[in-house]
């Protein structure tokens, strides 16, 4: 009876170990927040009188006075393209081990193609505003804590976007990136400092532009590797 129990246990253990292998990805995450605005009662009363007007005037007023939409903003990093979710979260699989990342904010990016759909690098497009920030992890030996140091950097003179960069497809005047020191959030993933979105941003125009670049980005595909007694699954991008 004891031998039978041991055989059953070994069989269950073998079935469990023969399942598809799961590989945990370390993520790099950025959160978008609404830009803080203090609303005065007098301004609210004045605005309420204007919204009864139908048509284009009310539509334009709503864009400038209602809270900004945080979902649907496009971003690219490491060859992937994604959009922010309803909570304003943007996440990518982390593909560089350095202690800093560049954040590029611009409405236009130009792919420099090597062959076919293979991109050699991305460049900033002439005539469109752009801003670049450096978010770097630093260590305070006295306090013994990690922190973020955010600085605004000059744009590359050759317009080539550095490889250690995340690009946010948006008009820079509607995006506020707080400069200076902020606390480092303890997490198995790399969580960047929050940035803030102002009222009036036009996500529709940015989305239509990204459609022209969508064929340069691929989805996630499962790949199976044959091993001695099983097939293990790995994710490719």
Outline:
The chain has 237 residues and is α+β, with helices and mostly antiparallel strands. It has helices spanning 2-17, 41-50, 56-65, 203-211, and strands at residues 27-34, 74-77, 80-83, 89-93, 100-106, 109-115, 118-124, 130-140, 145-153, 165-169, 175-176, 180-183, 190-191, 195-197, 221-226, 231-236. Helices cover 19% and strands 38% of the residues.
Give a verbal description of the structure.
This protein has helices at 2-17, 41-50, 56-65, 203-211; strands spanning 27-34, 74-77, 80-83, 89-93, 100-106, 109-115, 118-124, 130-140, 145-153, 165-169, 175-176, 180-183, 190-191, 195-197, 221-226, 231-236. The chain has 237 residues and is an alpha+beta fold. It has one domain (21-236). It has a 7-stranded mixed sheet, with helices on one face. The model has no long low-confidence stretch (mean pLDDT 77).
Observed structural traits:
7-stranded mixed beta sheet; 237 residues; 5-stranded mixed beta sheet; 19% helix; 38% strand; alpha+beta; 4 helices
Instruction: Give me the count of strands.
Output: 16
Given helix and strand content, the structural type is alpha+beta
Rg calc: 24 Å
- Proportion of residues in helical segments: 10-25%
**Spatial order of strands in the largest sheet:** 3-2-10-5-8-9-12
Low-confidence runs (pLDDT<50, min 5 residues)?
none
Number of domains: 1
Largest beta-sheet characterization: 7 strands, mixed
Mean pLDDT: 77
> Strand portion, in percent?
35-45%
């Amino acid at each position: 009876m004891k031998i039978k129990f041991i055989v059953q246990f070994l069989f269950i253990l073998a079935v469990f170990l023969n399942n598809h292998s799961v590989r945990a990805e370390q993520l790099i995450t950025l959160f978008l927040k609404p830009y803080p605005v203090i609303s005065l009662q007098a301004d609210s009363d004045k605005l309420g009188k204007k919204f009864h007007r139908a048509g284009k005037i009310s539509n334009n007023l709503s864009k400038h006075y209602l809270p900004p939409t945080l979902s649907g903003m496009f971003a690219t990093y490491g060859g992937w393209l994604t959009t922010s979710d309803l909570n304003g979260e943007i996440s990518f699989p982390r593909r560089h081990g350095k202690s800093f990342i560049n954040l590029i904010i611009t409405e236009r990016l130009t792919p420099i193609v090597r062959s076919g759909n293979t991109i050699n690098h991305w460049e900033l497009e002439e005539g469109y505003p752009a801003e670049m920030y450096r978010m770097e992890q630093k260590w305070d030996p006295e306090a013994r804590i990690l922190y973020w140091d955010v600085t605004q950097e000059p744009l590359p003179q050759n317009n080539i976007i550095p490889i250690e960069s995340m690009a946010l497809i948006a008009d820079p005047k509607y995006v506020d990136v707080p400069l200076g020191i902020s606390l480092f959030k303890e997490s198995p993933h790399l969580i960047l400092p929050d940035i803030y979105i102002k009222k009036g941003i036009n996500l529709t125009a940015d989305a239509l532009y990204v459609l022209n670049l969508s064929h340069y980005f691929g989805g996630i595909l499962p790949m199976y590797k044959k091993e001695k007694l099983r097939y293990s699954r790995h994710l490719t991008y």
